[in-house]
Amino acid sequence: MAIKTVAVLGAGTIGASWAALFLASGRHVTLFDPAPDGEELARAAILRAAEALQALGWSKAGDLAALRFTRDPAEAVREADWIQENAPERLDVKHALYRQIEPAMAADALIASSTSGFKVSELQAGLSDASRLLIAHPFNPPHLIPLVELVANGRTAADAISRAEVFYAELGKVTVTLRKEATGHIANRLQAALWREAIHLAAEGVASVEDIDKAVAYGPGLRWAALGPTSLFHLGGGAGGIENFCAHIGGPMESWWRDLGAPTLTPEIVALLAAGMEEAKGNATDADLAHRRDALILNYLRAQRELDASDEA
Length: 313
Ligand SMILES: NC(=O)c1ccc[n+]([C@@H]2O[C@H](COP(=O)([O-])OP(=O)(O)OC[C@H]3O[C@@H](n4cnc5c(N)ncnc54)[C@H](O)[C@@H]3O)[C@@H](O)[C@H]2O)c1
Description:
alpha/beta; Rossmann fold; N-(1-d-carboxylethyl)-l-norvaline Dehydrogenase, domain 2; 53% helix; 2 domains; 8 strands
């Protein structure tokens, strides 16, 4: 285990979840968060994540002995081999944090930012040595969802991506690497494209918010969890694969593309979505929805792991 100590900067939704996974994997974690109740909230979130992490086979899940909390970001990074930055999604906040930590970083430590939308070059502008930063964007919650999107550029240290690939693979993550930077990386752009059309369908009165969500969760969403859209359409093309699929379905597909909507989040549309969610939830609480999401994802991950193990055997 080359990376033994991780500094986690910002212990909100994403930082606390990362910290739970790093601890569960047997690493030391130094946590920094400036909020007065930052430590308390982070500890509670780490403990909440423990059950799922135990179920995924991380025997140290919930053991807080290797966790240290500090109110000084420079102190947090001094001993760290890896720095996972999860500060709020504001460039001025992230840059100010980098200025505080850069002088204290160990010689070969790297900053991996969890940013959902900023480009590497935008983040690097806050450092005097741009080689020390890459993006490692997780999906919420990072202790559960395997995907980590890696982004570096010509100024990032040459071995940053390979070091990140090894580190996140040790944590059970699946990494993808962008060949060039793009706002929102890969997966958030795809989510944005799908959600835009979901909103358009609701706003046009084609179906209820509930039915649009069901159409994803009980249909293509199940397939997408197994294979990506191009692989699925390749299978859909039969023996002729994706070329056959494009020859036969490509024309209609292009006509659907031309018909897709481009809504904006006006107050009326936000109100429509909120009312649609209330209707969809019925008597269920948000906690019920979150439980259903996490329990089903956990079972899916277990099934995936069993299948991978039997394929290797
Ligand atoms: N929430 C998501 O679904 C999601 C998913 C992937 C990535 N991200 C990214 O992760 C990062 C954190 O997002 P979040 O959802 O955890 O936000 P959050 O608001 O839940 O947490 C942010 C934390 O940062 C702390 N903070 C405030 N100022 C700080 C500073 N100067 N230095 C360090 N910490 C500071 C806050 O006290 C808070 O605990 C963002 O860059 C976001 O884009 C979020």
